[in-house]
Design brief:
TIM Barrel, eight-stranded parallel beta sheet, two-stranded antiparallel ribbon, 11 helices
Length: 332
């Protein structure tokens, strides 16, 4: 009897790039995570920045083919790619041409003529102060700019067979949960179909329940943002669900990595069970509310970004996710 299909499991490679204690070259990572001799992951999620594969060091047809062959040898594929838009001093509010050039370059690399991944991740890039601070553009102005930019970027990505997924975080741009929802609704109302939200459960908590790094009036879906519970992000999941096009699953202690190079801090990415999230409630909520996920979506991606024990916790995470897959399997 044929085995019923279930969610594929992937791991993001950020931790193996950012932290010196966890750094590994790409061949070693694939061997470590893959099915041939490693932990048995089905895929990886790339951050397109050297020395890991990026459009500069892995941009030729030959180098792309070699990398894809390496993945295939170890039984893996790519669940998504994050283009490197953070390290070029770019802003959505002032660098239109440079940012568009970066999107074109990364989309060509990620899309059907390159890695052939279905999705490319972007972020809001600018710090929240550019929007909510005393000299900020304001959320209405920011949404107007972001919709205009992502409408154009969606066209570029669509030409390459890509969907763009935007990850909200405490340290990037629009970081108030209802404003994030308003932005995605405005984008949808503008007729943009291939740009949506990347929902990461750790950010769902810090943004949606804690109001981390917010300026001015705190906006959360929690009854008390100073004493939140691990399931209170479900209200956020309900509101943003129609616009979610990709998901990262990981626990969090509800703290921030203050040593993050991209700003005051990203949410802690902790192994399952080490944080406060209630996944027995979050998985059913995602099944009910994440109606924006593309037809046939079958990934459960994880990310241990900035986790100082990412290597050892990769094993505990994949084991935990296999249990979740048995308890909350892919609907057929």
């Amino acid at each position: 009897m044929a085995k019923k299909p279930n969610y594929r499991i992937s791991m993001g490679l950020w931790a193996f790039l950012f932290l010196k204690t966890q750094q590994m070259d790409i061949v070693s990572i694939i061997k470590f995570l893959g099915k041939k001799h490693g932990l048995g992951f089905d895929g990886v999620e790339l951050f397109g920045k050297g020395p890991h594969p990026d459009p500069n060091n892995c941009g030729s047809t030959t180098s792309i083919a070699l990398f894809l062959a390496l993945l295939e040898e170890h039984g893996m594929t790519i669940s998504g790619v994050a283009g490197d838009f953070w390290n070029q001093d770019l802003s959505f509010f002032s660098d239109t041409d440079r940012l568009e050039s970066a999107v074109i370059k990364n989309a060509k690399w990620c899309g059907k003529g390159g890695l052939n991944t279905p999705r490319m991740r972007m972020d809001f890039i600018d710090p929240p102060s550019r929007i909510y601070g005393p000299q900020g553009i304001g959320v209405e102005g920011a949404i107007e700019v972001y919709v205009k930019r992502f409408k154009r970027f969606g066209e570029i990505a669509g030409n390459e067979g890509l969907t763009i997924v935007i990850e909200f975080e405490p340290m990037f741009g629009i970081n108030k949960p209802r404003d994030v929802v308003r932005f995605h609704k405005a984008l949808s109302d503008a007729g943009v179909k291939n740009v949506g939200s990347l929902y990461d459960t750790c950010h769902g908590h810090t943004v949606g329940c804690m109001g981390a790094e917010q300026i001015g009036e705190i906006d959360t879906f929690a009854k008390d943002h100073t004493n939140t519970k691990g399931e209170e992000q479900i209200g956020f999941m309900r509101e943003i669900g129609p616009f979610v096009k990709h998901v990262h699953w990981i626990d969090t202690k509800g703290e921030l990595h203050r040593e993050s190079p991209n700003g005051p801090g990203t949410s802690t990415h902790d192994e399952f069970g080490a944080g406060i999230l209630k996944f027995d409630k979050l998985f059913p909520a995602a099944e009910e509310f994440f109606t924006g996920l593309p037809e046939g979506y079958d990934w459960r991606a994880m990310d241990l970004c900035f986790n100082p024990n990412a290597r050892e916790q990769s094993e505990t995470c994949v084991k935990a996710m296999r249990k979740f897959n048995r308890k909350f399997p892919l609907a057929t």
